[in-house]
Amino acid sequence: MKKKKFKFQTTFTLEELTAVPFVNGVLFCKVRLLDGGDFVSLSSREEVQENCVRWRKRFTFVCKMSANPATGLLDPCIFRVSVRKELKGGKAYSKLGFADLNLAEFAGSGSTVRCCLLEGYDTKNTRQDNSILKVTIGMLLLSGDPCFKTPPSTAKSISIPGQDSSLQLTRKGGGTSSGSGTRPPKTRPTILNSGVPEEPEQNLSSPEEVFHSGHSRNSSYASQQSKI
């Protein structure tokens, strides 16, 4: 049986690189499809400021994918972001690290924010730093069977300096990249026999807690955090 074929309109936004291990320098990125097309491009060259580089650069391209005809599971489609540092006034550069993202995980998603640790090119002789690359990915099906399955997410949890707890590497939103969590629905007060409305219990969940998908806090932990 022939594999199912798909085409996706992909919007990839290169957001920022944090925890950069030096205080100055000029960084840029090369982005390219390793599978599903020949798209390749470069970001702008931006200076390091307070150990952070912000690009806010958006790339739009068409990505081709295939899927198993029996299961409908999408095959891997790797998109690589290579981070580079200018040398000799821009005449040369050094490769700091890269991040490979499987676009099949994001197929059909409205908007997904992902943070990932850079992988080193020369891991045998060089100790890789803990720089964190933040990107936003949105994919819209252009052609192919709308019934398909995405592979399990490879996102993991990491601890980011300045945050009180670990953050999920993946945060999904309904079409926006800046969602800070979903507001809990309001509960209507119940009317007692006396005619006095009973006040609903206060919902202690905050946007920060909603953001931690797959992680729940018990009441004792929340109360301890409030005292800090």
Topology overview:
Layout: E1 4-18, E2 26-33, E3 40-42, E4 46-47, E5 53-67, E6 78-87, E7 92-102, E8 111-117, E9 132-143, E10 157-158, E11 167-168, E12 170-173, E13 190-191, E14 197-198, H1 207-211, H2 219-227
Antiparallel strand pairs: 1-5, 1-9, 2-3, 2-4, 2-6, 6-7, 8-9, 8-12, 10-11, 13-14
Structural class: mainly beta
How many helices? The count is 2
Biggest sheet, spatial arrangement of strands: 5-1-9-8-12
Task: Write down how many β-strands occur, each being a DSSP E stretch of 2 or more residues.
Answer: 14
Whole-number radius of gyration? Answer: 22 Å
The helix fraction, in percent, is under 10%
Biggest pleated-sheet summary: 5 strands, antiparallel
Shape: elongated
Low-confidence stretches: 163-168, 170-227
Helix-strand topology string? EEEEEEEEEEEEEEHH
- End-to-end C-alpha gap: 60 Å
Q: What is the class of the largest domain in the CATH system?
A: Mainly Beta
Mean pLDDT comes to 78
In percent, how much strand structure appears in the residues?
A: 35-45%
CATH superfamily of the largest domain: C2 domain
CATH topology of the largest domain: Immunoglobulin-like
